[in-house]
Amino acid sequence: MEAFTGLTAIFFAAIFTNNILLTNYLGMCSFLGVSREVKTSIGLGAAVVFTMAFTSALNWLVYYYVLIPMHLGHFRFIVFIIVIAAFVQVVEMIIERVSEPLYNALGIFLPLITVNCAILGVCLFMLIRDYTFAESFIYGFGSGIGWMLAILAMAGIRQNMKRSKVPKGLEGPGITLIIAGIMALAFMGFSGMINI
Length: 196
Hints:
Blueprint: H1 2-17, H2 28-34, H3 38-67, H4 76-98, H5 100-106, H6 117-128, H7 133-161, H8 173-188
Helix pairs in contact: 1-7, 3-4, 3-6, 3-7, 4-5, 4-6, 6-7, 7-8
């Protein structure tokens, strides 16, 4: 029961109190670039959730069962990026086969998941926090859901803002960054509840 409570706390903390995007500001480039339409945000968000969950688990296995026994822990950045890149290629091929319109809509942002600093950040945070395999997977899954929640909220707001009058100087990235800041403040309201 205690292990389940710990995993639940890690999961919800990754979504809300330690949201990888809105509290650590990792993964902002694709967040700002793709969050114009809800449909594409759902697709990219699902791809990030899937990639984040499984690459955090894969990188945990590689780190503790390959790099540490061979005394190559200092290569973790390079190896983690290679694992993420290989996994993203698989995800890209799956999306292209399953939904070609989504694949075309995501465009360059799909392969850019490879260099999404949020995914590498999750893999590094799991090491810093000394998570077990199960905790790493849950943390990656929760972080992915938190990232997806943030991009969906931003996409919904930006879609509704198309019918709004925004001052000329704030159109485009200006108002988007202001909205992201307000969203970050809203997520900071969860801090202190669960902080793992």
